[in-house]
Design goal:
0% strand, 90 residues, mainly alpha
Length: 90
């Protein structure tokens, strides 16, 4: 029972000692298999979530960079026009 209580608390590293060959032994083996599978799936979901997060960041960066470059170009053109206008007025 301690192993099951540990899993209830979130500890998926618990493995039951199975020393029976009957139905209870089979339940213990399946429990061990189940906790290992759950742990594996959590790790997989964490990895997928991290990759999705990185892809979203890259997508946002690709949207921001062209906008930034366009604004930089526009600012540069505006500065050149002002310099030309100031030169004409002198």
């Amino acid at each position: 029972m301690q192993g099951i209580q540990q899993v209830e608390k979130g500890n998926l590293d618990v493995q039951l000692v199975v020393d029976r060959q009957d139905e209870f032994g089979r339940i213990g083996e399946n429990f061990n298999h189940m906790t290992g599978k759950v742990k594996s799936l959590i790790a997989e979901m964490t990895e997928i979530s991290e990759k999705k997060k990185q892809a979203e960041i890259k997508a946002l960066e690709s949207q921001i960079n062209p906008h930034f470059l366009y604004n930089k170009k526009q600012f540069s053109l505006l500065a050149q026009r002002r310099k030309l206008w100031n030169w004409i007025l002198l």
